[in-house]
Amino acid sequence: MPVHEMSLCQGILDIIEERAAVDRFSRVTKVRLSIGALSHVDPKAIGFGFDVVTRDTVADGAVLEIDQPPGQAFCMACSSTVTIPTRGQPCPSCGSHQLMVVGGDELRVDELEVS
Ligand SMILES: [Zn+2]
């Protein structure tokens, strides 16, 4: 298990436990995550790490659902938002490298199903 993903899983668990304390639930049955295509995070490693860090916690046995939003960047040359597969790629419309990433680099807890 890569240390990076492990600490991210720990961070996700921290978020869940904070919400559990605020909203007073004791069981999480499903967790929806967004892991952007540009986030440098391997969703498979997150899935594995999540099972490990949530053992004996409020999220033990919770189903993990992972959305992978595509990378999005604003191209200064065409003044429009384009989809890019990875960082460092040129604009697919005009070939410019003047791109500013505007989406798909997130790692976020979107939704919790609790009981
Ligand atoms: Zn462009």
From TrEMBL:
<feature type="binding site">
    <location>
        <position position="75"/>
    </location>
    <ligand>
        <name>Zn(2+)</name>
    </ligand>
</feature>
<keyword id="KW-0479">Metal-binding</keyword>
<feature type="binding site">
    <location>
        <position position="4"/>
    </location>
    <ligand>
        <name>Ni(2+)</name>
    </ligand>
</feature>
<dbReference type="GO" id="GO:0051604">
    <property type="term" value="P:protein maturation"/>
</dbReference>
<comment type="similarity">
    <text>Belongs to the HypA/HybF family.</text>
</comment>
<dbReference type="GO" id="GO:0016151">
    <property type="term" value="F:nickel cation binding"/>
</dbReference>
<keyword id="KW-0862">Zinc</keyword>
<protein>
    <recommendedName>
        <fullName>Hydrogenase maturation factor HypA</fullName>
    </recommendedName>
</protein>
<feature type="binding site">
    <location>
        <position position="94"/>
    </location>
    <ligand>
        <name>Zn(2+)</name>
    </ligand>
</feature>
<dbReference type="Pfam" id="PF01155">
    <property type="entry name" value="HypA"/>
</dbReference>
<feature type="binding site">
    <location>
        <position position="78"/>
    </location>
    <ligand>
        <name>Zn(2+)</name>
    </ligand>
</feature>
<dbReference type="GO" id="GO:0016530">
    <property type="term" value="F:metallochaperone activity"/>
</dbReference>
<feature type="binding site">
    <location>
        <position position="91"/>
    </location>
    <ligand>
        <name>Zn(2+)</name>
    </ligand>
</feature>
<keyword id="KW-0533">Nickel</keyword>
<dbReference type="InterPro" id="IPR000688">
    <property type="entry name" value="HypA/HybF"/>
</dbReference>
<dbReference type="GO" id="GO:0008270">
    <property type="term" value="F:zinc ion binding"/>
</dbReference>
<comment type="function">
    <text>Involved in the maturation of [NiFe] hydrogenases. Required for nickel insertion into the metal center of the hydrogenase.</text>
</comment>
